[in-house]
Amino acid sequence: MPDRAAGTPTGRPTAGESRRPGLRAPVRLAASARAVLLGAACLLMAAPFLWMAVTSLMGQLEVFSSGRLLPETPLWSNYPDALTAQPFARYFLNSLIFAAAVVTGQVATATTAGYAFARFDFPGRDKVFMLFLATMMVPAVIVLIPRFLMIDALGWIDSYQGLISTELVSVWGIFLMRQYFRTLPRELEDAARVDGAGRARIFWSVGLPLAKPAVATLALFAFIDAWKNFLWPLLVTRSMEMRVVEVGIAAFHSTYEINWPYQMAAGVVAVLPIALLFLFTQRYFVRGIQLEGIR
Amino acid sequence: MSGSRNPVAGTVPAIAAAAAAAGLALLLAIAGSAVREARHDAAGDLARMAAALWELPGGGDAAVAAFLPERARIEAVAEGGTGAPADPGAWAYRAGTLEPGARIGVAAAGDTSPLPRTATLIALLGLSLLAAWAWKRRRSSPPSRYPAAPALLAVGLLAAVAGAGKAWADRELHLVSAGQAAHAARAVGVALATGAAPEIAPRVAGLPWATAAALESPGELWTMPREVAVALAASPSSPPGELAYTVRVRGATYHGAAVALRPAPSADTPGRAPDTLHLALLGYEETRSPAVPLAAAALGSALLVSLILFLLPLSARPRALRRTLAAWGFLAPAGALLLVFTFGPLLFSLWISLHEWHLVDPAHPFTGLDNYRALLADGSWWSAIRNTAVFTLHVPLAMAVALALAILTRGSRRAVRWARLALFLPSITSVVAIAVVWKWLLNDGYGLVNRTLEAMGPGSAAWLTSPDIALATLMAISVWMVVGYQMVVFQAGLASIPRDFYDAARVDGAGPLQRFRHITLPGLRHTLFFVLVTSVIGSFQVFGLVYVMTEGGPLGATDVAVYHIYREAWEFLRFGNAAAMSWILFAVVFAATWLHFRFLERRGARA
Q1: How many CA within 13 A on the CB side of residue B114?
Q2: Among A128, A270, A293, whose Cβ lies nearest the Cβ of B433?
Q3: Partner-chain contact A165 B499, CB within 8 Å
Q4: Taking the model in full, what pTM does it have?
Q5: Which among B56, B71, B304, B557 is least buried, having the fewest CB atoms inside 10 angstroms?
Q6: CB contact under 8 A, B327 and A116
């Protein structure tokens, strides 16, 4: 966990300060310069979101009047107006259904496969694992066309099963779960085996509960990825009733081209759930990235 | 060790290869006979039409001569002879030689495509190589651990050739039935020109259905299904004169033809404007070639055999067998999904890229490498690749910024917490929402960026509407988007570098720059490589930003590869071309990754 590691008592500034009192002033100066730099960077990064929120409260013509940075009076009615101009409630419902199904599917497939790769010794295991991993190098656009034609042939265009079925397995998730299961001690599972539990039961009542943190990370990433997925839903949905939020925002953008406050209101509503989710689950994100980055 | 442990290892693929060769011949023979039969039937229909024209009042020699199609020639006049067409060209039809009551023979015409023969040759070559290899391996080396692999390869070859045969047959049948519709239209046209009544004319063509606005009381026989009539009437261009076209109704293909009715000028209808007569006949239905089910069955049985062969050596050790079975049980959900939605589509995509594949046209003629060849000369595609490559140059820039931020946030806990939210948000939220807000920020006249710049002095710029800078703008936004994610990865990498290194370096008197150069950078080598590869792969697939912000414009300046592929497939419906593009893109990405890898490896070995 970087936040823990980065904040260890042996962290550089404190160590330098205590060891060499003569350097105190420059170090403090460096620290405040750093804070300023960091603050500027954060402001720059957050500015578009702030501007989005500000614009969403302006009048449709007010945004074009020069020199105006804040709305004269916050126009809260933009939100209900924009969100009812197109069936956003339905879009959100679809996104939720899509994301929930993808999370369930990816957790189910990744935990079982990761467990098999980590805990079973069988001929060809490493080769199969490498074969799985190799698919991460393949650009997704290659499988887009055949997948679309397959879904079309099945008559699943513009349906939940068409939207969901291709996204149910994540090789990254399998990799994550395998790595995590390998770090777990085998003793508990051995004890369960001695007690006469079968493999499926050991997995379900010993392995899986121990892997909860990794499952949480995987579920989180699966959720975000599904929520952000734009191209696939764009291709397989046709009707308004099947659109997800991402596609909905894009369609909204082309319909209300010049009504920026409406678009910004829709944007805020699309960004907010993810921002809140991130706020409360930061450490799982960081763990996921850590597990991914350090191989 | 040689061959004794598992004697089946070599012989199985050899047998599989032999079986595949036999199956191959059978499959192609079936496809070939289906096509031959259809051509035969078509020739018979043409002969009947010619005979009907012959018998029409005002018909006869001239009418038949006018009807003579290009693809089939009336070539035999046999009196009391057999009705079956003889060899093409054996008898040439000469106007004036037909006697009333003579039989008109039409030879089945068709250009023989080299595909079945070429495919068979290639497959047979592959199979024999495989058989030879398997045989040699049986004698000389220890048995393969995966004896089924060559067998699977053989089955794959078989399925490929079978599929090619089916595709070829479909295409030929499509041509035959489309040609037949055109001939029928021509026959009707000729009949009308001879002065036959409009009601009678369609009968000349022997068509199941024909209808026309001009026909006042179409008999039951001539009433085509309503949907077909509507589809024909609504078909793209109301065809002038005589034109064959195709419509799809309820999954079946109808070949239609239209003939302009030019009623003979008579006393009661002087100067009547020509009406259009629409004809339609049920076109080819998909070949019910057994190739596909056979190939599926072969694949299934090969999988079964390979499974048995795979488990056979384990059966001596029941515990190992049970463990393997359990492992595959656990792998089954993920494995099956990957097989169906990743590995299968990969092969399917390669297959599509070798065809002319339109979504609406049921015929997918095999074109070999034509798609790739055309793409090599396609300037707009290479400009999309170039744009993508230029776009990818934002990755090193983003990495530099991210590394700086990671070093900046190292050490202070609270700053990290809060900075992370602000920095990370762009990389996890909705790309479309981000694209929309940036489009607003960069709006030419009213965007915040231009307003600020104007207020501060430098003046505004056409961020997204100038072909010179639009791509650079997208790159900058992309840096903004990915920097937070990369920073967190770098933070993790930095945390894994032991503190002692820095302390030791400081004792040795190394300054901050030297410490960065000699400790931080080498310590982050793997992290840097990881971030570089994943970011490059990601940036080669940029789509949402371009789709929302620029739609590839202005003047194609931001037309990147995935967007180009998207339009090729879902706007122009050229799926074969798009699939070929995606493989070229893959080759480019793969080459880039590989070069990075080699480069870093060599640097790493030297360091």
Answers
A1: 5
A2: A270
A3: no
A4: 0.68
A5: B304
A6: yes
Homologous superfamily (CATH) of A86-255 is MetI-like (1.10.3720.10)
* Residue A237 DSSP SS3: coil
In angstroms, how far is CA B162 from the centroid of its own chain?
18
Determine which helix (DSSP H) or strand (DSSP E) holds B166, and give its type and residue range: helix B148-193
Task: Return the CATH superfamily for domain B372-606.
Answer: MetI-like (1.10.3720.10)
A292 and B489 in contact by Cβ < 8 A? yes
Of the candidates A109, A231, A278, the beta carbon closest to that of B337 is on A109
Cα B224 to Cα B220: distance, rounded to the nearest angstrom: 9
Residue boundaries of the structural domains of chain A: 2-76, 86-255
Which of the four pLDDT bands, split at 50, 70 and 90, describes residue B235? low
3-class DSSP assignment, residue B246: strand
**Tens digits of residue pLDDT in A144-161:** 999 999 998 888 988 999
CB-CB: which of A11, A139, A150 is closest to B537? A139
B327, B492, B579: residue with CB nearest A290: B492
Tell me the nearest-neighbour CA distance from B548 into chain A, angstroms: 7
ipTM of the complex: 0.85
CB contact under 8 Å between B431 and A246, yes or no, is yes
Contacts of B51 (CB under 8 A, 6+ apart): B103, B104
Question: Are B334 and A294 inside 8 Å of each other by CB?
Answer: no
**Distance between CA B205 and CA B183 in Å, rounded?**
8
Within 8 A by CB and 6+ apart from A139, the residues are B537, B540, B541, B562, B582, B585, B586, B589
The reply to whether A168 touches chain B by the CB within 8 Å rule is yes
Q: Is A193 on the interface with B (CB under 8 A)?
A: no
